[in-house]
Amino acid sequence: MADTILKVENLSKTYKVRKSAPIKAVDCISLEAYRGEILGVLGPNGAGKTTTVKMICGLIKPDSGSILINGKDNFKQRSAAMEHISAVLEGNRNIYWRLTVRENLEFFAGLKGKDPRAIKKEIDYYIDFFGLGTKKNETASKLSRGMQQKLAIAVAMVTGSELVLLDEPTLGLDVKASYDIRDLLKQIAAENGRTVLLTSHDMNVVQDTCQRVIIINSGRIIAQDKVSNLMRLFDVKAFKFVAEGRLSENLKQALTQIPHLALVEEEVDTIITLNLEEPRNFYRVVELLGSEDVSLLSINRQELNFEQVFMEILGRSENGGEKMAAL
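^ that's the sequence the OP posted. Answer follows.
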């Protein structure tokens, strides 16, 4: 049985707005995070994910519900619960610009009651782990955006917290820095047994790093499952046909009668995309193109990515679909 580090039950929060109707930001959300996993919390802007994360951190008090961190109630046993959690919210704002890399780590470890002299080896470890060795005596203000983000995560890790909350950890980073952060997060969970709860708009980050995801929309959880399960659920075979030249009006009309087919005419060629829910439709496309001797330049299988899955789940939710719980 999985070891639960975070348990949220029936969490709700409504904001009162002056001269306007109240806004229900979070509506009866329940979730769990397990030791050693990376859990993604996703949703469009205004979905309620930031309010949820801030309630878990103890920065916002919920109207109802409970939050247990390593078995400690986040509000009734606040000090005990906060010993087990660290957060990097709104980018790299949890570091002090005028302190060096090492001084930042020493300072924030001290805030958690740790003697920096007693954990010198741990500090050295995280400086090396995050590739900050050549910058350890540089002030944070002089670091690159990627280095600042690595330092921010290192600060959250050096405190020894078992649960680390990361808000958009790769936002604004270049491709190389983003990949570095992804690899480090996977190592943190695998080697150190930490639990990482992250929010991100970057579906590549989610697909690459998270074992499970929770998707929130309009304050409610609309999907909660393993990334691999959600990918399989929506894994409809799709094919891309590239036909030479423009098609006749009769042929275009015949092709567009095929379900789940999209046709786009480009400057020189015609692109046909087919979601293959019925295998016979593949042969129907080939047959129709052959009937007018259209030259096919290529046929390729389209790979599904998590961004498509995410948009499909949101679309179903907004069209009145049912919540998708764990499969």
